[in-house]
Design brief:
heterodimer, A: alpha+beta, globular, B: alpha+beta, 4-stranded antiparallel beta sheet, two-stranded antiparallel ribbon, 3 helices, 7 strands
Chain lengths: 428, 117
Amino acid sequence: MEYLASNKIAIIDLATRDIIEEELEDDLVLEKIGGVGITKSLYDRFADENPIVLGTGLLTGSLVPGSALSVITAKSPSTGRVSHVPLTLDAGMELKYSGFDYMVIKGAADKPVYLWVHDGIADLNDAEDLWGKDVWAATDRIRDLMGDDLIQVLGIGEAGEKGSDLAQISINYWQSGDRMGFGSLFGKKRLKLIAIRGMGLLEIAEPEEFVEHCAGLLSALKSGKTSGMKGIATMAAAMGEADIEGWLKPLTHKHMACFNTPVPTNTFVFLDEDPALLKETSVAEPGFLLTDISPLLTLKRLGLTAADTCRILKACAKYGMDGAAVAELSEKTGLKDPEAIKGSLPNLKGPVSSSGNAVFSPWAAVGNQEPKTWMRREAVAYIFGLHPIFALMAPELTEEKLLEISSLGTELELTSETLDEVIADITG
Amino acid sequence: MGLKIDVLTCTACMACELACGYHRDDAFALLSSCIMPYRAKEKKNYVGLILKEEDSLVAARPEGLEINRIGEEQDPGKEADASAKPMLLREACDLCEDVDDGPLCIKFCPVNAISME
């Protein structure tokens, strides 16, 4: 695969520490397009070895608006289904530029390891000094070790190390869209984290036409209904929970976007600093980046303050546990005391409904969409590498336009029939 | 004439950085961009934009603009900024002089945080 790709798949065996590289063949792209189409195919190929498959979308990391997404495919310990979770913020893009398009991680290490992916090189290293650290401390440690604060870290905390089905794979310090308990898979494989740095280059088959189409899409989006939308409360408002914006406002520092995503879907709150502060704070950990609307809605419904809610979610993030699951279980048991909720994390167990009943993480939710429409839109997002929340909000990103841009970018003829087949295969 | 940056509007999405990289390389890459969001203080959510111009390195910080003349001695009491070093090695902003409708960073900023002054 010459264009929009690094042309490399890594097969990593944690048990033997062997790492094999394969080419990303054009034929595989013509058949499965990319993203979840290929991660699912790789999962099926290595299904007997309980793989975790990371992959980039065909358009991830490009100038197509919303091209933030990479994906993890594995069997969910929560649901027992082969499922897909999103990698957003800057992590999806970073993987695209790391020199690998897809990575299959199979087997289990006999002692803690971490995977360091950069410049087309994947290395397994001992992680005994990282094991036992919470998500924030582990992220700090690996960045200090490598001397680079822009390294993106997919890691687990104590929840994953202990094999909790509610454990998440975090992105840097923050909660991810992993509602499937994939953190426990890392723990069982003794894989503490994957550190990713991307400094590669992606060639484009027809660069001028490709970029003009991207500019046209952005122009349409800027005059569309998503224009001016910002912050996590945007999604809440679409669910009929408009008052959450006022609830969060006293804490809101700034709304932050995932890579090349026109709507900033994340909100940074300051908990131990004045949210109006413009200059750099001297407080080391002043707040928290809100990335998931669901636990906010649940904990607010329990009567908690915005500050207490955000502190609970910060504790979940450090522990490496899915905040949506914690909120759901707190609601079920009637637990309303913030300290008690935080104290409950080590012994918390499912089952939970926050994993949803689809193959895609229910993390991406905007309003109350019809399930079939939601599933189709998520499949498109996960194949092409679009932010799965933004894809729901932006009808301008049509399937026809994405196929046209993909063909311009790759010189491969990708058709709507192929897309239909890939979606049918993924969604079963 | 140069770029004007409204860093309080910027959402650090990196579209400007990628567009600039495309201008340099005719491909998608980030290493040659002369404009980039400052993302190194993630836990503090301290975000700005750095721009390399012909004679200066512009740091658009939330609290105000800082312009450092390239080659001039910096305040020794001031902490060095690690992100400044790779930027200094890159080509300066040419305002995308070969592009008909102006700088690509302006064209691809989804929130209109960059404009011409």
